[in-house]
Write a structure and sequence with these properties.
The chain is mainly alpha-helical. It has five helices and two strands, in the order ααββααα.
Length: 142
């Protein structure tokens, strides 16, 4: 029954690593390399969309909140998995939590493969693979 925990620990560690890496990118300011990029960056930071009900946000603000949400999603997943492993939750609870993780991070992996670049694809793919292994092994351990 305990063999799944190695893979779930690996998933939790990579979830936390991804969260930290992604959170640090929120602090980095990218500089434009040419006039076209300069114009794009200016628009991203200054042009405000009318989102209704008095909300006016720039694309930069929207990107910031989505990026922070991704970091928080990975931190939440990693901390929940780590906590349940430390508390030695029963196999039925762990099956449910791992299945929920698989659904959420599977959808996230699909979106990242389509819309992101190599580093997040690799890190999310590792998390997803470790979750699949832990779910398969916990099912076979009973």
């Amino acid at each position: 029954m305990k063999n799944y925990s190695i893979w779930l620990k690996a998933a939790a560690i990579f979830q936390l690593i991804f969260s930290i890496i992604h959170a640090t990118t929120l602090l980095i300011t990218q500089r434009p390399n040419n006039e076209t990029e300069n114009q794009l960056f200016t628009l991203i930071d200054t042009y405000q969309f009318d989102l209704g009900v008095g909300f006016h946000r720039t694309m930069g603000e929207l990107i910031l909140v989505f990026s922070a949400s991704l970091s928080l999603l990975y931190a939440f997943g990693g901390l929940i998995n780590w906590y349940l492993l430390r508390k030695t939750a029963g196999p039925e609870i762990m099956k449910g939590v791992i299945t929920i993780n698989l659904i959420i991070f599977g959808i996230c992996f699909g979106l990242i493969v389509v819309f992101a670049f190599l580093l997040p694809i690799i890190l999310t793919g590792l998390v997803f693979m470790f979750l699949i292994l832990s779910r398969f092994l916990i099912r076979n351990s009973n």
